[in-house]
Amino acid sequence: MSTFTASTNIAELKESPTIAVSSRAKAMRASGLAVIDLGAGEPDHATPAYVMDGAHHALTAGATRYTAVEGIAPLRARVAARASVLHGKPVDPSQVVVSGGTKQALFNACFCIFGHGDEVLVPTPAWPSYYEILSLARANAMIVPGSADMSFRVTVDDLDRAATPRTRGVMINSPCNPTGAVYSRAELEAIMRLAEDRGWWLISDEIYRRISYDRPATSMLEVSSGFDRLIVVDGVAKAFAMPGWRIGWSISSIAAAKAMAALQSHVTSNAATISQHAALAALSDDDAEQVACDTMVAAFRRRRDAAAAILRGAGVHFIEPAGAFYLFIQVGNPTPGDPEPGSRFARELLESKLVAVVPGAAFHAPEWIRVSYAAPDAEVLEGVRRITALLGK
User: Fold this and answer.
1) Hey, what CATH topology would domain 17-46+289-392 get?
2) Confidence class of residue 25 from pLDDT cuts 50, 70 and 90?
3) pLDDT, tens only, 338-349
4) Does domain 65-285 fall into CATH 3.40.640.10?
5) Taking burial as the number of CB atoms within 10 A of a residue's CB, which of 18, 129, 267, 280 is the most buried?
């Protein structure tokens, strides 16, 4: 019997905890248990009909061949045109690289611009894949804790204090997974100035930008003067309810785009052809897009408000989300005997209450849990009630 020994490339790689929770919930459901899955990081809405129609038309027309590695020209042109409106200056399609999801776009960026020993500041709590992607690039993810009083948003002073001579970049996510925090325009402008002054790369993950409630979420495209050391990443997974289509993209300088396309040519080649045409359809009908996005965001807002009311009524401490579709809930305080109360609580919740959530340890916040309200209203509210019941117990 052979024994598998991992190479040093992945010796310290950890499985995605968010995917693991979702997989566990699906397995329990398949066994007949009525599990409420509030761990998933994907919209529960169907892909809009106008997108499906566009994909069907493209498929009928024969969109089944290889494309250019960096993506089909009409999709890159559409992404560039929309970026130009935000940026206030022309963005050329050659600055766009279409990838197999936003995760691949982030990997391309980190692998191409960071290397062995480089330090990258990661405002924390943050999506677990940031830390692992940087590790695969042989860089060091430097945790920069935010304050719960500020919904865990970091300040330029926080970033400045965490910087060392080895700092080469910072990763920003707004609206943020897992907290739902949204950085203001002034906050992003300050972070941009700091990065420019220090000569850092700035990677802005904007996959949740269209899902905001109190005010429109600002894009780094709106506050940047250029793309010398800026890479903006986005895609169709969240705002268009298209997670399974696996289409994301990066917008950067032409030089960085060429480097990322060269890397992608040896890793995956082009993103799925039919998925690219579906993404093009999603971005090509402004009226249908607005209706679909507004409808979904209204549903998320309704669930957020109802769930938050239950938590407030029970005296539970949580971060009021201004964007995305997550509730970040504090369920305990670490002690020597219980260093990860969020993990313990998540296990008990799944076993005794049949509710799946993601423990905060996945986001380097061990006393918290992440609860997704991208699920049917009744399931969200019942799941939150069970959470408060277990907390009370």
Assistant:
1) Aspartate Aminotransferase, domain 1 (3.90.1150)
2) confident
3) 899 999 999 999
4) yes
5) 280
